[in-house]
Amino acid sequence: MLGDRRDPALVLIHGFGAASGHWRHNAAGLARAGWCVYAIDLLGFGASSQPGHHHRSPLDNRLWARQLQAFLEEVVEAPAVLVGNSLGSLVALTCAVFFPAWVQAVVAAPLPDPTLLMPLRRRRPRWRRRLGRHGVVWLCRLLPLELLVPLIVRTPLLSLGLHSAYSDPQAVDGELRRLVAQPARRSGAARALRAMSIGMALRPRAATAAALLRRMQQPLLVLWGSEDRLVPVQISERLRVHKPDLQLNLLPRLGHCPHDERPALFNQTVLQWLCDRPGSPRAPADA
Question: How many CA within 13 A on the CB side of residue 59?
Fold first, then answer.
């Protein structure tokens, strides 16, 4: 936590493969602007536990949203503005819909979900749904993740993946590599990756971004790097179909992690938008 607990709360939620430390260049500036800033490690990431697949509690955005709501209730002890990067944006959106009393507004930077590109289909027969679920589970179990995960984090493949997420190569430094590699070297990393792969693939339609956006009542700011190579900016055009009142800002010459690539620009954009929200502090010029 950074800032005064008497200030309005703001919670930072990292993306896939990252951790709370990915907000290394943002938290202090947001706190100086008059916010009490928190960051959380989602289950399976960072220093959190790395659970395996359980049918009754799948590791997907619904479970992470419940974790986030518990964090708001037990640690923050107040409703908050949620700021997410990538997967963290989907978690923030899910929490806003499922636990609306705890979420004042959401900033999503960006908001990826493959289902945004899929046409609406008629509900499949039960036998086909069951067959598809079993196929996903067995495919994920057959993947040699115990070999693939160490291979990625101990070879140049890690840097290759990070460079694909950043427009500026200079932003991929040793601290960022350690931030991503350290949790992936833990013994439960492959187990957690398999669990979240199954959970996200099998989540119900009501837990997808399109369905959640249609239900969301809180204000939503979406930030998208114009040079995002992981999730093309064209996907952002699909969002207004489901939530016409959202605000979309394109950030020039930035990639998939705009908060870490240009933290000053990111903070300024977020703070300017939040200034219009009731109860928000006025941001100083150096935030």
Answer: 20
Write down all domains in the chain, each with its CATH number in brackets.
9-274 (3.40.50.1820)
Which tens digit of pLDDT belongs to each residue from 152-198?
888 999 999 999 999 999 999 999 999 999 999 999 999 999 999 88
CA dist 6 and 71 (Å) reads 17
Q: Write down the pTM of the prediction.
A: 0.91
User: Is the backbone peptide bond immediately before 110 cis, with ω within 30 degrees of 0?
Assistant: yes
Dihedral pair phi/psi, residue 40, rounded to 5°:
-130, 145
DSSP state of 39: E
**What are 182's two structure tokens?**
């350290």
| Residue 131 clears pLDDT 70, i.e. is over it | no
Type of residue at 264: A
> Using an 8 Å Cβ cutoff, are 220 and 243 in contact?
yes
- What is the phi/psi pair of residue 204, to 5°? -70, 165
CB count in 10 Å sphere of residue 239: 22
**Over the stretch 28-42, which tens digit does the pLDDT of each residue have?**
999 999 999 999 999
